[in-house]
Structures are given as C-alpha cells and as structure tokens.
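Hello,

I think I submitted the adenosine-5'-triphosphate job twice by accident. Can you confirm which output corresponds to this input? Input:
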Amino acid sequence: MAQAVVAANGDGISAVRLEGLKFSYPGCAASIKDASLDLPRGSRCLLIGANGAGKTTLLQLLAGKYMVGRDVITVLGRSPFHDLQLTCSGQLSYLGTSWRKDVAFAGYGVPLQGDITAGKMIFGVEGVDPERRAALIRLLDVDLYQRLTTMSDGQRRRVQICMGLLKPYDVLLMDEITVDMDVLGRQDLLDFFRSECEERGATIVYATHIFDGLEGWVTHVAYLEDGEMRIGGARSLLPQLSEGAKLLNVVEVWLRKEKQARQARDDERRAASGGREEATPVAPSRTPFDMPSKHLAFFR
Ligand SMILES: Nc1ncnc2c1ncn2[C@@H]1O[C@H](COP(=O)(O)OP(=O)(O)OP(=O)(O)O)[C@@H](O)[C@H]1O
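Support: Only one job matched these inputs. Its output is below.
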C-alpha cells in the first residue's frame, strides 16, 4: 500500500500525483496494477523495481505519452496527457534511453541525426539562457567540436542530457540515463540535480538500477513490484538509510523476496499442471515491434 506524503509546497499543489493508477498496453495484461504517489516540489524520487516492474511505463505515463483519466495522474496539478503546454513549455521534461525520441519529445527544432557537431546541435536550441547553457556544457564536459557520429555511447549520452536540461524544467523524469556515464560524470550530474531541486524547487523522478552514492541524495522512494507501488513516499519510510544502510542492500532484500515468491508461484503452477506447462510452446504475445525502443535495440 502506498503511503502518500502531504505536499509541502506553498500553493498546496503536488509536483507529481498518482491516484490509484492502472494501465494496460492494448491487448496485454496490466503493466501498472495499482500505483499511488504524492511528491512535493523539490523532491528527488528514485523509482525502483525489478526488470519489467513498470518503471518505464510509469515514467511515460507521467510524461503524457498515454491517455489516462485527468485526475489519475497530475503533474503540477495538470494532466500531462491532456495539457500539451506542460511538455511544450519545457516545464515537464523527459530524458530516457532513446536519444532520437527524447530530443523530438522535447520539441527542439534541430536536426536529430546526421554528421553534425555537438555544438551545432546544442546551439541550435532557441530560447536558452546562455549562462545555463555554458554551465551545462562545462558540467557535462561536452566537446562542442566533436561530430556526433564519432562519439562513444557515453559521450553521445552527455550531449543528450545537455540538450534535455537546457531549459529549466519544473519536473524532470529520467529513465536510466546515467547508465553509460563514467563515475565523475554521474557524480557531477547528481550534484547538479541536487542544486536544481534545492535552489529552484525542481522535482526529479529517476528510474535506475544503479544505487551507488544515492543514499544521501534521495528524498523520496517509489518501489514498484510487478506493477504495484509497494512503497511510495518520503525516505523516512526507509529508516535503514539513516542508520547507514546501503540502498543497494535494501533493494536487494526486496528483489530477492520478490524473486522467491515468483518462483514459488511458478513451482506451484507447474506442480498443479503436472509439469505440462513446460512442454507447451508459448505463443508470443508481443512482436518486437510492439516493444519499447530500449528493448528493440536487441532486435536491430
Ligand atoms: N509497448 C508495450 N506493449 C506491451 N507490453 C509492454 C510494452 N512496454 C512494456 N510492456 C510490458 O509492461 C511491463 C512493464 O514494462 P516496463 O518497460 O515499464 O518495465 P521496467 O520496470 O521499465 O523494466 P526494466 O527495468 O527492464 O527497464 C512488462 O511486463 C513489459 O513486458
């Protein structure tokens, strides 16, 4: 059961609010079965869960990619699906694993690919505060003269992140974006996000499997187990963290429990079917083309 946190900002409007969210992709079983969460402005919330728990789906729902009821998901008091201004204005920003889609999502009128330099890409975004841009280029150590086609994955990721942060968002949704960054780059970025939250009241929801150094960073947690929000609220819900426990160890305990329960269920089902289940070929319920781009990478 999710434990809601009362919004702490002055106007009483939460940065992010989910109320009994349920969601299924067309023709599929529910990916999100029950999720409630209330994040005040200035939160840095970690979205945690095993593979397939629903993190990307939840972030995309928060970003307004799929339609749900107006009151089921609100960002800054508005429905991200119905209120296009939220994303068009840059108030709500999404950074995910798909480079081309994110840049397109951010609505930047710049070429999305081709043999151009990082500088051309970054300076092609209009209406940006030059000081913010310079600070981000420095923070992310972007070589403005290097061509995108010659960059490593991590270098290209830095350009992507730079582009995504050029405009000062109020709510930022991030899906595993630091995965191919080096230690220093990741640490500097986390420090930057902390100052964005503390100084501007920005709110961040960050899905990751890398928990290194996040114990002191995180203010809120959202733990999804197979589409259900098991824990959702302030970090005080995890008193272990204040007692010096590592987030990795806390999460490991949750995921091991999940895995055991899942395997016990599978064993029971197999026993009940007299072992026939294993012999029955399973028809694929989804083609590669139905899958999110991060999974599609395997099929390219
Ligand atoms: N486009 C889609 N169509 C149908 N089912 C989908 C689609 N995208 C995801 N799913 C299913 O929804 C569930 C949640 O997937 P999701 O990608 O949100 O998980 P996740 O927590 O982000 O996983 P990971 O840690 O592996 O990135 C999974 O069962 C997945 O198979």
